[in-house]
């Protein structure tokens, strides 16, 4: 860590005494080299995490991460910062629990304050059948080593007395609580991984858009970029939101549609919401940031979009969901809303796999659950790039599962990306 | 976003239900390559950034299926025609 310097209480005091003028640059701004061992397209959370784990876990440091804009300018800076591992299906739960464990050690590992806050995530249920379904989900989680507690109505009331328990249509009958879930400061995740990768020799190349793939004998041997041609033994693409656009340059069609997901933040309020709360009858999830803003979201708008902004009917729908369980937020003013582009895959689950093009690897299809997966996604993609075989928890995320029928349809709605 | 319905005029998008890309056609299930064709039909999409021809159902209006051209980068609406007038089969998801 010589180049960036290690962060510590002592360094903080020393810098404070000298006017904070000597903090070293957090990552370099290198010129592209003509060739690398591995090139990763996309310096979002997943791409940067991939580079970090390639260097730290698999000893591959001759790596470049290419970014069209600036690092973290895509979805890692646009999400609602929730980390959880409350999945049910075997192909998913082990992976997300692996991610949860990586979150728990992330800050010490990176020597970077990512504000990992395990404040708990509470999924509310509103009927007896839904409580049964949550019991099943909780059991599935515990079988994979995750934590889950089924709360009755009074248990929920002790935790969140301010909820609207007696809504005429959707009374709260209980909830599924994962205490280890919570929130993480999203930008700091990108910056922390960037710093960790850079200090191990990875080149992070910003303003370096990939315009095509270099092909020789049907094999991918590098990329064409706005800053010149870069050769590589292996190219990994982690550009969720734009996966179809980028992979089309290699002649591939993906089982993905791009949709817009909006997120919202209210004005800063005193602490009112202890953890993450989700509405089980509509689609609404909320937490409170350390600055006091209520950070919330709901469904995708539901139509193909690359516009990074949504429309008002969805704003209304999300706010109605919020009002159904939290009438107390009705007078809070909305501060900002924004949109991100989601890779909606056809079964709602991601893809970490080789592609039919030799030398080209794909990390895509995160729907709107990509943020929580960032550490495990990076780790597993690095594993695949380094060893040419999937990490065990990500073995089900195959690109060909749609052809073979081994889909991971967590929501059970079939090949309808706008419903996942 | 407002969609200019040929029968109802310009109406808010919340009156419509989205089905997706209007391109895929249900393949012949008796063809020898039916498995591959259905994989393509069900799962693979062009997913373009720009003009996209797609199907919307005017559920809270005239209940017509519409073929809509829409720009996915700007949400600008282009040509809208009734699927029936285009001779499209009833869309089956």
Q: Would you kindly provide a written description of the structure presented here, covering whatever features stand out?
A:
The complex is a heterodimer of chains A (420) and B (93). Chain A is α/β, with parallel strands linked by helices and 420 residues long. Chain A has 2 domains: 30-81 and 186-255 and 347-419, 3-Layer(bba) Sandwich (FAD/NAD(P)-binding domain); 112-183 and 258-342, D-Amino Acid Oxidase, subunit A, domain 2 (D-Amino Acid Oxidase, Chain A, domain 2). Chain A is 28% helix and 26% strand. Chain A contains 10 helices and 18 strands. Chain A has helices at residues 9-17, 45-56, 90-110, 128-143, 153-159, 186-199, 243-248, 312-325, 374-387, 401-404; strands at 35-41, 63-66, 82-83, 121-125, 149-152, 174-178, 182-183, 203-205, 210-216, 219-225, 228-237, 256-268, 276-279, 284-288, 293-304, 334-345, 351-354, 360-364. In chain A, the strands form 3 sheets. In chain A, strands 1, 2, 8, 9, 10, 11, 17 and 18 form an 8-stranded mixed β-sheet that branches. An 8-stranded mixed β-sheet of chain A has the order 5-6-4-13-14-15-12-16. In chain A, helix 2 packs across helix 9 (374-387) and helix 3 packs across helix 9. The longest helix of chain A is centred in the N-terminal third of the chain and has 21 residues, at 90-110. Chain B is mostly beta strands. The longest helix of chain B is centred in the middle third of the chain and has 10 residues, at 34-43. Chain B has one helix at 34-43; strands at 2-5, 9-12, 17-21, 51-57, 65-71, 77-82. Helices cover 11% and strands 35% of the residues of chain B. In chain B, the strands form 2 sheets. Chain B has a 4-stranded antiparallel β-sheet with strand order 3-4-5-6, with no helix packed on it. A two-stranded antiparallel ribbon of chain B has the order 1-2. Chain B has one domain (2-28, 38-82): 2-Layer Sandwich (Folate-binding fold), CATH 3.30.2270. Chain A binds chain B through residues 242, 244-245, 248, 253-258, 302-307, 311, 313, 346, 402-403, 415-418, and chain B through 1, 12-14, 18, 20-21, 36, 39, 42-49, 52, 54, 70, 72-75, 93.
